[in-house]
Here is the input.
Amino acid sequence: MKGGLNVARESALSKGLRKWAKQGGDLEKALPSRGDSPISTEAEVEALCAALDAYRADPTRDATRVVGSPMHTLTAFFQEVATEEAQHALRRQGLARLRVWVEDALGGKPHSEDEILFILKILGMYGEAQDAELIAKAARHPLSPDAFMWSIVLGQFNDNHPQLATLISALKEPLPPGFIRVSFLDMANQATIAGRIPNHPFDTKFGHEALEAWLKDTRAEHFSYARSATAALPFIAQEVRQGLLAIALTHPDVSIQMEAAWAQAKSGDEAGLAALVRYAGDPIFGQTAQSYLEELGHADKIPHEAQQPDFQALSAMAAWLAHPMEYGRPPKALEIFDSRVLYWPPTDDERGLWLIKYTYEDKETGEPDSGVGMVGSVTFALFGEATCDLTPEELYGLHCCWELKNNGDPRAPKKRSPKAGIRILVKHGNEF
Here is the structure.
């Protein structure tokens, strides 16, 4: 929660909400800047509730809206709370006003999928027992069973959530359909690993069948489901686990093979531990494998060469590239393009930096696709800009410009370029 409160700011928020509740119009224009207006007082909660009541009575009261909805804007205030006073007031007065929208949707009234799932996320976040029951009811309905937002809704039930065991019990039999089932699996894996529940809800005949189906699914867009299925294997009955592990260990995706090695090791199989040690010695997979070994209490088995700075730089770049927001898969090849110690203006210190050349195979043409990323400060690759035909000095210059701009540093040039970055680096004592 954010601390402190500003009386004028609160007054502006309350005024804007109450004015809109009475007059309608453009809600965004009626409110002060969202970044400066968390809910801070009970009076602001009452104004928010008045706005919710007005919108429920007349959902057309903001006809100017093109993107999003007033309901989403109003609901978002439940996660922008500055004080305990406001949070308690929202529990008493606000949550009931959100629940009715979910009940309406479950009763068959027309609704926005995004709005209702966002409301479920907020209800999950507040941790009330009746809302765990309502979320289970929505999953059973099922409400938008293939929406990705279910991973966010169930993701609120982390291993510290007071209603975690209640929700797992409500959903375990029969398992929910669609993507809700995958999201439920992820939640159950986390809870079982943390020791919050004694038995994995997928350790049933139907659960075993679901895990096997995901592991055998050859569609690349569903490989993440297979990885979640593999994470459940240490908690499945041994007579079933071995067959499922055999499928996971030969999966076409190496990340799932590594997850299977973790599952083997977690189950006490030394073969899994040996496989993780091998993966830890490969920079393309090293960072993930090392994290598995550390989690399992075997950090001492990480190869010595994998702990060296050059290896760690390569591994950090590989992990960043494989993130779903980047390439989404490991590179085909990695090599150090350059490394040196520089005074780095974005952090105002001297540090070791690495330029890492990465290569992928183009999915359509099969041709190599290469670029250069940087490790040592912010691990990042300027796709399409930081190319292999630039000199190391030019690449450091580009990253210096980008990082300064990203930091909001006044030294950042108006236009990013290798030359502008080199000038800044030289100005700070670096010899190029």
